[in-house]
Amino acid sequence: ENVFCKLSGIMCACGWGFERNKLPPTSEEVVKVIKPYFQHCIDEFGVDRCMFASNFPVDKSSVSGVVVWNAYKKLCNELGISEDEKVKLFKTNASSFYSIN
After folding, report:
1. Banded pLDDT at 38 (limits 50, 70, 90)
2. Which residues, including other chains, have CB under 8 Å from residue 81's CB and lie 6 or more apart?
3. Which of 6, 57, 58, 75 minimizes the number of CB atoms within 10 Å of its CB?
4. Please, which residues have CB within 8 angstroms of residue 80's CB and are 6 or more apart in sequence?
5. How far apart are CA 80 and CA 85, in angstroms?
6. Residue 88 class from Cβ within 10 Å (0-12 exposed, 13-18 middle, 19+ buried)?
7. pLDDT per position as a tens digit, 47-74
8. What string of H, E and C letters represents the secondary structure of the chain?
9. pLDDT of res. 74
10. Residues β-bridged to residue 7
């Protein structure tokens, strides 16, 4: 219960070749590649100990920030995450972890 999982940075670490494509990836393409990793983390740590984050400007070489955040929203919908759980993943868990009011 002292360990949290920050869900971010996977674009730069894995890349999936998006940086070499003529067009940037869509949020649907990003969901397709991150889903197994993020789903595993959420399944193992639980919604109460995970938080979405960005890894910008580092990830900028592969994907835009808007696409990343839209991918997170779409991922939540695909995983059946409730509205209350979304608030935790997008806001309250990070606020609590980093002691931000």
Report:
1. very high
2. 42, 47, 89
3. 57
4. none
5. 10
6. buried
7. 999 999 988 888 888 888 999 999 999 9
8. CCCCEEECCHHHHHCCCHHHCCCCCCHHHHHHHHHHHHHHHHHHHCHHHEEECCCCCHHHHCCCHHHHHHHHHHHHHHHCCCHHHHHHHHHHHHHHHCCCC
9. 98
10. 52
pLDDT at position 55: 85
Report the distance separating Cα 101 and Cα 92, nearest Å. Answer: 9
Measure the CA–CA gap between 61 and 68, rounded to whole angstroms: 12
Q: Rounded to whole angstroms, what are the CA distances from 88 to 17, 19, 21, 26?
A: 31, 31, 34, 25
- Is the peptide bond between 25 and the residue preceding it cis, with omega within 30 degrees of 0? no
Residue type at 9? G
Residue type, 58: V
